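Progress report, Aim 2. The chain analyzed during this reporting quarter is listed below.
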Amino acid sequence: MDKRALTAPCGLDCFNCELYADNLTEKLAGLIHEKLGVPKEDIPCQGCRQQDGKHFHLGSGGCATLDCVKEKGVDFCFNCDVFPCAYLAPTADAAARYPHNMKMYNLCRMKLVGVEKWIEEAQEIRTKYFAGKFVVGKGQAD
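Predicted structure tokens for the chain:
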């Protein structure tokens, strides 16, 4: 698995996503099919870059961030001269369910330590995002 290629330009770790084809369970696929009416064959994702930002959870418009990165000719948002921009702004809406708010942290880590080192950290970052506790003035608690 080429984890660099499976890292979205916005900083999401597609290789750790529960919708990524190698990670998708039959149980989750069945739940998505049942609750959202998505055909089972449309549920597995191959990664942002591999699917050109087109997947059922993005709707028919695809991904504006990926379009922007391609237009600017950069590999990752942190390579852009206007980083960070509104595409990466955090939101409180559905933050507990979606990894959107991890993007800025991931991109800053990539810029600081390099993409390959960040890849080694990505699973722990994702786990702490969804299971960690926030302490005011201290960030994530261990």
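The chain has a mean pLDDT of 91. DSSP finds four helices and two strands in the chain. These observations will guide the mutagenesis work planned for the next reporting period.
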